[in-house]
Write a structure and sequence with these properties.
Helix content is about 40%, strand content about 15%. With about 270 residues, it is an alpha/beta fold. The protein has 2 domains: about 45 residues; about 220 residues, Leucine-rich repeat, LRR (right-handed beta-alpha superhelix) (Alpha-Beta Horseshoe). The chain has an 8-stranded mixed beta sheet with strand order 1-2-3-4-5-6-7-8. Helix 1 crosses helix 2, helix 7 packs parallel to helix 8 and helix 8 runs parallel beside helix 9. The longest helix is centred in the first third of the chain and has 26 residues. It is globular, with a radius of gyration of 21 Å.
Length: about 270
């Protein structure tokens, strides 16, 4: 093997480019034929996921009650055709520690997760069991970016399940008419769960005094040296506005400002 392939940065660059331009089949073949490429290829394959579907499929089939799909992990080509048939409703039994270690082998490689909480992939029962296994450590310990849209009331308590201290970008899009107290409580926990946030996007959050206070408190305790982007469709208290506009590294800002009523002019600034 060429000496340059002993340099981890070079091997990872090759793995990333191979996954990006040649597809997962070629990358997996390389990983199987050369031990040096195994971890870099797995990292590249698992870095960005659009749901927890493939991660759940790393658990054995007998873990699930009947109704789940027993097909082995699909390729990208057939992934979306299987998605409608793969409905994990509940566990038949709890995963063993050995099975959970294998699950975490892939979970720790994920860097970006989008659209994760969807009823066609995960039920509250499944999310509760995963929460049970993550009391001492995050489910996705190296996740940098979390993007959730269409968040329903039942899924709000599970949002912390996907966050870790390494998460730096959060996008949360809520469904309409959610309980204000539930949304407010979730928002105030974000800086504690993710102490070095760089980007916060809050979409369709209720516009009422309770949520305004929660969002404002979140911004007041967020790391002011790391936050670079903020978007929120909520008014802010005067104190939070003053802090937000003076953040030293702020690059993108989209906020609602103005007087009473439900329709506020939106100001967007890009520095």
């Amino acid at each position: 093997m060429h000496a340059c392939l002993n340099v981890d940065e070079i091997v990872r660059l090759i793995a990333h480019e191979l996954v990006a331009f040649s597809g997962e089949g070629s990358a997996v073949s390389l990983a199987c034929s050369c031990k040096s490429f195994e971890d870099p290829v797995l990292d590249a394959l698992w870095a960005k996921q659009r749901s927890l579907l493939l991660l759940l499929k790393s658990l054995p089939g007998d873990v699930w009650k009947e109704g789940g799909c027993s097909v082995s992990a699909p390729t990208t080509r057939v992934f979306f055709s299987l998605l409608k048939r793969f409905i994990r409703k509940s566990f038949r039994r709890l995963p063993t520690m050995t099975e959970w270690v294998r699950f975490r082998k892939y979970a720790r490689r994920m860097r970006e997760l989008s659209r994760s909480i969807t009823p066609d992939c995960q039920s509250p029962e499944v999310l509760s069991v995963m929460q049970l296994f993550t009391i001492k450590e995050p489910l996705l310990p190296n996740l940098k970016t979390l993007k959730l849209w269409g968040i329903k009331q039942y899924s709000i308590p599970f949002i912390p399940l996907f966050l870790s201290q390494r998460t730096t970008s959060i996008t949360l899009g809520f469904e309409s008419n959610l309980p204000e107290a539930t949304v407010a409580s979730m928002i105030t926990t974000l800086p504690t769960l993710c102490p070095d946030l760089q980007a916060i996007y809050l979409q369709n959050i209720p516009r009422n005094p309770m949520v305004i206070t929660a969002v404002s408190r979140m911004l007041l305790v967020t790391n002011r040296n790391t936050l670079q982007e903020y978007h929120g469709n909520s008014l802010l208290t005067e104190e939070a506005s003053d802090v937000l506009y003076k953040l030293p590294n702020l690059r993108v800002l989209s906020v609602f400002v103005g007087g009473g009523g439900l329709h506020y002019p939106r100001h967007r600034f890009q520095i």
